[in-house]
Each structure stands twice: as structure tokens, then as C-alpha cells.
Design goal:
The chain is an alpha/beta fold and about 260 residues long. The chain has eight helices and twelve strands. α2 packs parallel to α4.
């Protein structure tokens, strides 16, 4: 029987008395590969931050693996931020970025051990960035940057991987490569939760979608959830849904004169 890895029970979150969402209950099963979609300002990133524990609810309870959030094991959750939020002027190499992931385990040594360096080399090889380890993080491609931060999140063997807009700001091929890589990680047993604005990428690649706008509008497989009615309720406007040779396509609806 599949058990939830993430549980939000009657959770309310807001900033300076402005609610973002209230009385939210949501569970995500272990092994799920899920995407959260919704308009800007709908609370998607706040929801991720609530799962990560960087935003504290005013009410309700968040559990990871059946334990209250503050009692989850260090390194159990890996996080990949939006690339747009990274300070690319910070003097750090790809190897150093990956090693930063070790500090969530509250390690005390100021330098990496031989075993830790081996782990970095192994994960860099698996993600196809082994030739970039000595490069400054700003001097590699967008796809390589995404993989470097993914490696940082994976170095502790997390059960849950959380990504904020992992396909934003990269080209179509890189989007495909990143999502294909996430599928591989999911097949290895990692539960994946991400946010994205790209409805067509979700329709093509993700098995589970959560339409969110200050609360869950609908969730399920994209073919069941991506309907004009649900998308209208989510985005507050009309979106057209087409089936093109077995593939869902979503576009802004247009009206003739």
C-alpha cells in the first residue's frame, strides 16, 4: 500500500496577515512525480517553501515521511532553486556547489573527506557534468548549471526532491533533458515535487499534476485534470486544450471577430 511522503493537514500560511492559502490539506504519495501549476501569485512557491520548512504555517501541520517537519532527518529533502535566484558572481566552482549540499547534515569538518569527494565525482559523472567540476558556476551552460544544483540536492541521497521552476530560462532541448533526467531519478525511487509555468511540458512529461491557486483546484493525471473548465478556474481565463496525435496541447483561447 502506497503511503504519503508529504502531508499538509489543514495548513494556513500568509505574510504580514495577508493569507496565501488557508485550511489546505494535501498529500503526495511516496514515489510520486508531481508538478504544481498555477498563475503567478497563486502561492506555488509558498507551498514549496512550506514543504521545505522555510515558511512556517500559522496553523495546521506539515509531515514528511510521517514525522512533523522539524523532526525529519537532515538531508531527507533535496532542494533545487530557480536559476534566476542564484548569485552568479559568487566565486564558487561546480564541485564546491555540489559539496554545499553536505552541510544540511550539519557536518563539522571544514574540508571534504576523500569519500565525500568520491561521492561528488560519482554524482557528477551520473549527471554528465564530470568535466565541469573545476569550472566557475557562471561559466557553464544553463543545462549544466541546472545539473550542478541538482547534484547538490542529490548528494545526501534524499527521499524527496523539490524543484522550483526547473525548466525556466533554458531552451527546449535542455527542458527535455532535465525532465528526462528527473524521470530517471523518479524511477530510482525518489519522490519529486516541482513547480512550473509550462503546461505543455507537464502534459508531455509528468504523470501527476496539481492545479493550484490559493488552494488545490484539481489534481490527477494531466489528461484528467487539464480540461478547459479546470484551467479556467485555475488561471481565471480561458485556455484551449487540444489533442494532437495523442499529445495534449494547451494554449490561450482566441476568439474571432
Amino acid at each position: 500500500m502506497v503511503t504519503p511522503l508529504i502531508e499538509l493537514r489543514d495548513v494556513s500560511v500568509g505574510y504580514r496577515h495577508r493569507p496565501v492559502f488557508t485550511h489546505l490539506s494535501l498529500s503526495i504519495d511516496e514515489g510520486r512525480f508531481a508538478g504544481i501549476v498555477g498563475p503567478t501569485g497563486s502561492g506555488k512557491t509558498t507551498l514549496l517553501n512550506t514543504v521545505l520548512g522555510t515558511v512556517r504555517p500559522h496553523a495546521g501541520e506539515v509531515l514528511i515521511g510521517g514525522r512533523p517537519l522539524g523532526r525529519s532527518r537532515p538531508g531527507e529533502v533535496g532542494y533545487v532553486p530557480q536559476l534566476e535566484t542564484v548569485d552568479w558572481s559568487f566565486p564558487v566552482t561546480v564541485e564546491q556547489v555540489i559539496l554545499m549540499g553536505l552541510y544540511v547534515n550539519r557536518r563539522r569538518l571544514p574540508w571534504p573527506s576523500r569519500e565525500e569527494r568520491r561521492r561528488v565525482a560519482q554524482i557528477a559523472e551520473e549527471l554528465g557534468i564530470s568535466t565541469c567540476l573545476s569550472h566557475h558556476i557562471r561559466n557553464i551552460s544553463g543545462g549544466q548549471q541546472q545539473r550542478a544544483f541538482l547534484a547538490r540536492a542529490l548528494i545526501n541521497h534524499p527521499r524527496l526532491l523539490v524543484l522550483d521552476e526547473p525548466t525556466s530560462g533554458v531552451d527546449i532541448k535542455t527542458q527535455h533533458d532535465v525532465l528526462h533526467l528527473l524521470h530517471q531519478l523518479n524511477r530510482q525511487g525518489i519522490t519529486i515535487l516541482l513547480t512550473t509555468h509550462d503546461l505543455n511540458a507537464v502534459a508531455a512529461h509528468l504523470p501527476w499534476v496539481i492545479c493550484f491557486n490559493q488552494g488545490v483546484i484539481a489534481e490527477g493525471p494531466p489528461r484528467e485534470v487539464f480540461t478547459p473548465e479546470v484551467l479556467s478556474r485555475t488561471y481565471g481565463g480561458e485556455l484551449a486544450v487540444f489533442d494532437h496525435q495523442g499529445h495534449l496541447l494547451i494554449a490561450h483561447a482566441t476568439t474571432g471577430s
